[in-house]
Structures are given as C-alpha cells and as structure tokens.
C-alpha cells in the first residue's frame, strides 16, 4: 500500500536563528521538525511507525523480534507488557533516545505523546522533548505506555547508505518568529532540571536548550529499562540494573581505583630507587683532577 501524505501547511521552517547557523545545523533543525510531523501524522492514521535514519540499510525484517520483546516484569517498567515504544540504545548518557531508529505502535497514548512532542519541538530539540514527554508527559505511565530500549532493533540494520543524499533545502529559508506557534513548557511531572528563572528558563516563543548535566534518567531510557524477550536476532537481555548492582559496580570501581593507586605508587617507588642508585654511584666515583687529565693529554 502506498499512501501519499500531504505536505505540511504552512511549511516547516525553523526560527530565524537557524538562518545564521551553518548549513549543516540548519538542515538538521528542519529534519527535526519534519520527523516529528511525519511520525505524528502516520500514527494518527492508525499505522505503526518504524522510524529509521536514511543512512541505515535494512538487513531483515524486525517485526518478529519486535513481537518477542517485552518490558521487564516490575510495575515501574510495564509489568512484562509488549512495549508500545522501542528505541535503540539511548545516547547522551542513557538520558534520552537518539531517534535514528525507533518503533512506535499506534495507540491512544502514543498519539497523544507525538502530538505533545511535535508541539514542543518548535521550541527545543526533538530528541529532548520526545524523551521528556515519553517519560513524564500527560498520560504517559508504565501501565498506559510501556516502553523499553534494545540493541536488538539496531541488529537489523547496518550503516551503509543505499539512497543518495536528498538535496538540501534552500539555505536561509526561515519562518518569522512571530508566525511560529508557541511551544508549551515541560510536563508538570517532568524531572529534568529546567531553570526556574534566568536566561535558561523555558521560553514558549524561543528555542530552548538544556545542558546534559541537567537531564535526569527517564523511565524508558535508563540502564534498567532495557527490553527482555528472546529471539534469534536478539542478544540475551542484560540483567536488571538494581540498586544492588549499582552498589556492586561502585565497589568494583573503588577496588580497581585502589589497585591502580597501589600499582602507581609501587612504580614511582621503583623509579625513585633507580634514580637514587644512579645518583649514589655517580657521587661514589672519584673525580679526576685537572692535572691528571692534562698529564694524560
């Protein structure tokens, strides 16, 4: 089946600040707006979305693996349900999804999710607002919107481009800032540390950024939110990242740091001993007088 989607109206042009940026940044920003619009449109039509970056080539159908994946059994993860959102391994220190590979099932909660993310993408990076709405947005709970991440999804693709690069849009075509819709702020339950005052507070009529240290782990992107479920194309799921696992990892890191410190101290002691020995041997040798040197000459 082939469905021709109407072009967005009005055109999805970025704010004027991107006309003063590099061509690469300008093109990347336009793609963000089009991606959120495309995904929301397709999901609203009742179709599931497998969003894949054009630079990735499909090796085999991922549908059987997607049917096998489940969330973890805990209620905070989705109680072992079939996930409605599956992402690849999250980037940015596991705090948000990179959207180059993403599966979204068309349900009422995912339709609401994408409407919220699309509306907010006019005021911020699409990956930031998508992850924030997925974790804490209105109507987004483990019960209503189960989600997880899996390297299994990435195993169905490689990074060899199979289509020529699309021509870049005319550089410098920007929207009047007054004509752009205002983007509502973060969800009330959101945990990202958006400033409450100052120049970095969320501004509905501007483009907003948030430094990575101010991000917080979401319910779908952390190490403990990986998908489970067995399929020949999927690696075994990692163990749940519990508090005990975290403490054990910290103890292991401290022990490794202690052993490194002891090794470095031993190496310095050996080096100092060699230096002292060379200095001692140099002082032990009798110094020849000038007359002896002249006599030999």
What does this structure look like?
Helix 3 packs antiparallel against helix 4. This protein has 297 residues and is of the alpha+beta class. The strands form 2 sheets. Strands 1-4-3-5 form a 4-stranded mixed beta sheet. Helix content is 35%, strand content 6%. It starts with 22 loop residues before the first helix and ends with a helix. It folds into 2 domains: 16-161 and 171-241, no CATH class; 242-281. The chain contains 7 helices and 6 strands; from the N terminus they run H-E-E-H-E-E-H-H-E-H-E-H-H. The protein is extended and about 100 Å long.
Compile the SSE list and pairings:
Elements lengths: L22 H22 L4 E4 L4 E2 L4 H6 L16 E3 L13 E4 L3 H13 L5 H11 L10 E3 L1 H4 L2 E2 L84 H42 L5 H7 L1
Parallel strand pairs: 3-5
Antiparallel strand pairs: 1-4, 2-6, 3-4
């Amino acid at each position: 089946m082939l469905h021709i989607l109407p072009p967005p109206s009005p055109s999805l042009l970025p704010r004027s600040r991107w006309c003063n940026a590099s061509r690469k940044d300008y093109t990347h920003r336009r793609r963000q707006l089009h991606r959120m619009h495309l995904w929301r449109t397709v999901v609203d039509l009742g179709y599931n979305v497998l969003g894949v970056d054009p630079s990735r080539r499909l090796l085999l159908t991922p549908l059987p693996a997607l049917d096998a994946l489940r969330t973890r059994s805990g209620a905070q993860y989705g109680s072992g349900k079939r996930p409605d959102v599956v992402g690849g391994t999250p980037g940015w220190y596991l705090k948000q999804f990179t959207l180059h590979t993403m599966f979204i099932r068309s349900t009422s909660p995912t339709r609401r999710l994408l409407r919220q993310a699309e509306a907010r993408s006019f005021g911020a990076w699409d990956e930031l607002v998508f992850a924030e709405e997925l974790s804490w947005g209105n109507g987004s709970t483990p019960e209503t919107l189960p989600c997880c991440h899996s390297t299994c999804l990435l195993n169905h693709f490689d990074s060899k481009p199979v289509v020529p690069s699309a021509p870049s849009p005319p550089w410098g075509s920007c929207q009047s800032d007054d004509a752009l819709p205002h983007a509502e702020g973060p969800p009330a339950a959101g945990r990202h540390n958006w400033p409450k005052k100052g120049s970095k507070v969320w501004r509905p009529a501007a483009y907003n950024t948030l430094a990575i240290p101010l991000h917080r782990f979401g319910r779908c992107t952390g190490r403990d939110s990986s998908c489970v479920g067995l399929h020949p194309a999927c690696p075994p799921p990692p163990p749940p990242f519990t508090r005990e696992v975290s403490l054990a990892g910290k103890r292991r890191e401290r022990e490794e740091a202690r052993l490194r410190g002891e090794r470095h101290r031993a190496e310095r002691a050996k080096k100092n001993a060699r230096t002292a020995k060379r200095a001692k041997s140099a002082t032990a040798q009798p110094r020849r007088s000038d007359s002896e040197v002249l006599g030999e000459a």
